[in-house]
Amino acid sequence: MPTYEYRCPNGHTFETFHRMSDPGPEACEICGAAPLEKVLYPAAIHFKGSGFYTTDYGRGSRKRDGKETDSKPAGDAGGGDKKPEKKPAETGS
Questions:
Q1: Tell me: the pLDDT tens digits for 7-26?
Q2: CB neighbours of residue 8 within 10 Å
Q3: Average pLDDT rounded to a whole number, residues 80-87
Q4: Distance between CA atoms of residues 58 and 54, nearest Å
Q5: Which one in 5, 34, 43, 78 has a CA-CA gap of 20 to 30 Å to 23?
Q6: pTM, full prediction
Q7: With contact defined as beta carbons under 8 Å apart, do 25 and 13 qualify?
């Protein structure tokens, strides 16, 4: 049977065990005040694996950028913003 926690208007909290189909208690076990409020807690959910965090998105593009900068010749002293010049296509004439 599940455990439920209730809070009365006077601030007392207590736990009860009852079926989901059974009605909850109508008055506080400590002081007898009513109405009671069911205390809800968030479920413990753990997202594991890739794709659940903002740092996981776009990871593939960062890897490609890192490879491009590592493969540049050592004599290139310019900034990394320059694109390599395209050579004109050679014609067979």
A1: 999 999 999 999 989 998 99
A2: 20
A3: 63
A4: 9
A5: 43
A6: 0.45
A7: no
